[in-house]
Amino acid sequence: MRFFYFLLSLMGCSSLFAQNLYKESLAEVEKSGYYRIALSQEMIGLARDHAFNGIRIKDQQGRELAYFIEDQTSLKNKVQYDDLKIVKTATDSKNSFVIVENDQQIQSLYVQIKSLDVLGKQAQIRGSHDRKQWYLVQAKLDISKLDQHFNENDEVFELSFPKGNYPYYEIMLFNSQEQPIEIWSVKTRKKLPIVEPEWQLLSLGRLIQKDSSDKKSYISFPDLKNQYVVGKIKMEVISPKNYYRRSDWNGFEFVMSSKNSSTVFTDLFKVKSGDMLVVDNQSNEPLRFGTIHIYGIPVYLCVYLEEKQEISIYLDVSLNEPPNYDIVHFKNDIPKELPVLYTSNFKQVLSFNSEPPVRVERWYESKLLMWSVIIIVGLFLVWMCFRIANDLQKKP
What Rg value do the Cα atoms of the chain yield, rounded? Predict the structure, then answer.
């Protein structure tokens, strides 16, 4: 009985290990060189949960290949810091002053100072139209906690204030020690237009809508088997013509509105089997949907491949630390335009060497031996039946 329980527990552990390891394949290349491998969206959907720490590339001999990751998520929300022109600076024994020119509406400034271990840092901002008459924009506030940096030897702090467009701003820095703070620059933060990545359409399959008595519509996708990470939703609403509905999809809340585009750009969120899109209809008739499309963001692995080299990409979700490859320190030297390779055959595996080993046939497993035993046993049974029939005939 104990042995039986041991086998059951061993089988349970085997299934657990299987759940931790995934694999997809890549066709061999005709020429040696650097390539970008586009991970499947199924692999990305699982790997992003673990910051891609468990990704490994192995060849047929089990050797690990070095790579670095190119994630297009950063393309979505880029910001730029622009320097404001400094027209005057001054210091005394404890305090520093700087005046900058401005030509736009702003509501925050980023002040870069030399890293300095002084206590009681405070800042104040004033604005002026002519550098003669000054108006208070931000009263003194504590800036002791500086956790931003533009380079290794600086500290950067953000000063926020009501939106304004003074041509001149004066920033005054104070501290409680006999040492003025050295101001290196004053910057503004500008959001750049959204740069869309190379969106990849994900397969949702069939759409089933159930309109409930709680004034909500529940939309499920029974064909969805894998987990995906979504960055864009595109919906086709058939009716009505004008609508404004609050919606929730696995914790991501957004508004569907006929006033705006039917496309919604989102911070990344997960969609997996069993998740439902919930639309709050309130006092309105339920919406009728034609199609709903979701899109993922591509992720590439940059790697050097040898000619005719066959490799596989693995994801071990039990690994919490990323690999430390030399190639990371040389990624700026590798050309940006590289051939793109696409993976295939995403599946769950039991081990890194998922191919069954070549097994030597034992003598007692020979087909000839098995058929011989079957024939002999069959003849013996026929003979036994014949003898029993003869014995029965001889009896009176």
Answer: 34
Percent of the chain with pLDDT over 70: 86
Residue 290's alpha-carbon distances to 211, 219, 265, 287, 315, in angstroms, are 15, 12, 19, 10, 36
CB 297 within 8 A of CB 254: no
Tokens linked to 243? 């609508």
Q: What would the two tokens of residue 228 be?
A: 């995906």
- Six-digit token pair at 379? 């003849």
Reference 96, options 137, 134, 133, 124; nearest CA is 124
Cα–Cα dist 47/316, whole Å: 9
Q: Which residue, 195, 187, 177, 45, is CA-closest to 119?
A: 177
3-class secondary-structure state, position 15 = helix
Q: What 3-state class would DSSP assign to 41? A: helix
Structure confidence by residue, pLDDT tens digits, 174-197: 887 777 888 889 998 877 665 667
Distance CA 276, CA 219 (A): 5
Of 94, 89, 110, 91, nearest to 190 by C-alpha is 110
Cβ–Cβ < 8 Å for 168, 134: no
Cα 356 from Cα 192, distance rounded (Å) = 52
Residue in the block written with tokens 């399959």: 205
Cβ-contact 181, 114 below 8 angstroms: yes
Q: Tokens 């901002």 correspond to what residue? A: 125
CB 158 within 8 A of CB 109: yes
Give the C-alpha separation, 119 to 299, whole Å. Answer: 45
pLDDT tens per residue, range 220-278:
999 988 889 888 888 888 877 788 889 999 888 888 888 776 777 777 888 888 889 99
User: Tell me, what DSSP letter sits at residue 286?
Assistant: P
Rounded alpha-carbon distances, angstroms, from residue 216 to 144, 212, 260, 277, 282: 49, 6, 21, 10, 7
Q: Nearest-CA neighbor of 131 among 102, 158, 104? A: 102
Beta strands 183-191; 277-280: pairing state: unpaired
Task: Kindly report the pTM of this predicted structure.
Answer: 0.57
| Tokens 């622009």 belong to residue | 82
